[in-house]
C-alpha cells in the first residue's frame, strides 16, 4: 500500500528515475482494487439515491490516477533501460499490450543506467 500512496503523493508527476517491479505492480494491484471499490460505491449510491451524478465517481478517480499511472509506467520502463516513449507501443492492438506487460515484468537493468541508479541498490 505504501507504494500506491507514494506514487499518489511524493511521486505524483515524477517521470524521471527508475521504479522497481514491486513498486509498479503494487501500484497496479491497489489501483485495480480501488477501481472495484469506487465502482461498487458508485453503483450503490446511484441505485439508492437515484442521483446519476454518482455514476461519474469512477471517471473522477480515473482522471486523478492518470498522471501517477503514466509516471510509474515511465519509471518502470526506465528501470529496464527503455525510454518512457515505449508506452506508445500499447496503441498497437493486442501485441502492444502484451509487449508492455513483458517489459514491465522484466528484471531491472543491473547497475546504474542513463535514468539513474538501480533502485534495488545493487
Q: What's this entry about, in short?
A:
The chain is mainly α.
Strand-helix topology:
Layout: H1 2-8, H2 21-49, H3 57-79, H4 95-105
Helix pairs in contact: 1-2, 2-3
Provide the descriptors you would attach to this structure in a database record.
57% helix, 122 residues, mainly alpha, 4 helices, elongated
- Cα distance spanning the termini: 24 Å
Biggest sheet, open or closed, and with what strands and sense?
A: none
**Shape label:** elongated
Identify low-pLDDT runs.
Answer: none
Helix content: 55-70%
Backbone CA Rg: 17 Å
Order of helical and strand elements: HHHH
How many strand segments? 0
Strand proportion, as a percent range, falls in under 5%
Mean pLDDT: 92
**Separate helix tally:** 4
Helix-and-strand structural type: mainly alpha
Q: How many discrete domains?
A: 1
Describe the protein.
It is a single chain. It contains four helices and no strands. α2 (21-49) packs antiparallel against α3. With 122 residues, it is mostly helical. It has one domain (2-105). Helices cover 57% and strands 0% of the residues. The two termini are 24 Å apart. The protein has helices spanning 2-8, 21-49, 57-79, 95-105. The mean pLDDT is 92.
Amino acid at each position: 500500500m505504501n507504494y500506491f500512496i507514494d506514487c499518489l503523493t511524493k511521486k505524483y508527476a515524477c517521470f524521471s528515475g527508475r521504479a522497481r517491479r514491486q513498486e509498479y505492480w503494487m501500484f497496479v494491484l491497489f489501483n485495480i482494487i480501488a477501481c472495484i471499490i469506487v465502482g461498487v460505491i458508485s453503483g450503490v449510491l446511484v441505485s439508492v439515491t437515484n442521483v446519476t451524478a454518482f455514476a461519474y465517481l469512477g471517471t473522477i478517480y480515473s482522471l486523478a490516477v492518470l498522471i501517477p499511472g503514466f509516471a510509474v509506467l515511465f519509471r518502470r520502463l526506465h528501470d529496464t533501460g527503455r525510454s518512457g516513449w515505449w508506452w506508445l507501443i500499447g496503441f498497437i492492438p493486442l501485441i502492444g499490450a502484451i509487449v508492455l506487460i513483458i517489459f514491465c515484468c522484466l528484471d531491472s537493468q543491473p547497475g546504474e543506467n542513463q535514468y539513474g541508479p538501480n533502485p534495488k541498490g545493487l
